[in-house]
Amino acid sequence: MSGDNTHTIATVTAAPGYAEFLEAYCDKEQPLLIKGLAKNWPARERWQSGRLRAELHTLPKVRDRGVFFVSRSPVLEQDIEMPEFLKEILASDRIMQDSVAWRFWINSRNNRTEFHYDTNAENVITVQVKGRKEWVLVSPETPLPCYPFTNFSLLKDEQRLLRNKRFYKFDLEEGDLLYLPPHWYHRVVAKEDENININWTFTKRETSVISKEFKRDMERCGLLHSFKNSDSALVRRCYETAIRALPNVGGIGWGLKSFISSPYKPSRGTLVSRFFKELLQIPNTLLTLPNVRSTLKKVDKT
Ligand SMILES: O=C(O)CCC(=O)C(=O)O
Ligand SMILES: [Fe+2]
């Protein structure tokens, strides 16, 4: 362990089997880097940014979300060779089947995705098909400060944000696969002229990993859910106004039909205390507003 809390992500050179993937990584929600997994994928020859973008626009199942393209069912399978563990997890009844998505990211050099974690307790499996991206992952046990009620970290100086956090910093190179567990914050910077990655997302039905950020997520989602379904028309209207005003980049409204099941059941008192903890971030939020404006121009195209 070094003084600045940088750790080294678990790294292997061959895909684990399904049972090992579950036991060592997915059940424990620990990240994994598989080097060179996609070395021989036809996509490495076939995909080129302009052509791929044009092709994705012709596919009826695919939606252009601005930041990425997304499909709820398989597309361009002829160009990729999914490892067995991935096929098995996507087909398994351990996950919510309506949570599965195929996403395509086509980015030019220096494209930057700021610190956030994916909502709906999403697990992400990413393959860097072309180019290279630098990732920083921050453990949900040392969460970053967020904008109130959101999964987006305050836009502040990175060195200060990472002080005393447990994090991994590494390059995802052409052909590498990354398993990103739920609630791990990440920021990503594209490092080559052409950068293409594909990722699959899924949400487990259950979890026994009760990290600090998991608790906050359950509490903020519980609160948002109670505002949305409140008996008071005023509360419901305030909720709807706030959601409409917020950028629709992370599915802030908790889109899944069912919550993930876990031993953590926050009490009403905990939800109320969460409400006030979130409000306490308002002063910090105001201080970062100039950064928010410039970042939203780049990010929120949905
Ligand atoms: O590749 C990027 O720029 C962002 C990726 C990301 O946030 C994700 O896959 O969840
Ligand atoms: Fe993400």
UniProtKB/TrEMBL annotation:
InterPro entries given in the database record: Cupin_8, JmjC_dom
Which residue windows are coiled coil? Answer: none
Record domain JmjC: where: 71-219
Q: Which PROSITE patterns match?
A: JMJC
What SMART domains has UniProt attached to this entry? JmjC
- Please give the Gene3D superfamilies that the UniProt record associates with this protein: Cupin (2.60.120.650)
Mind telling me what this protein is named?
JmjC domain-containing protein
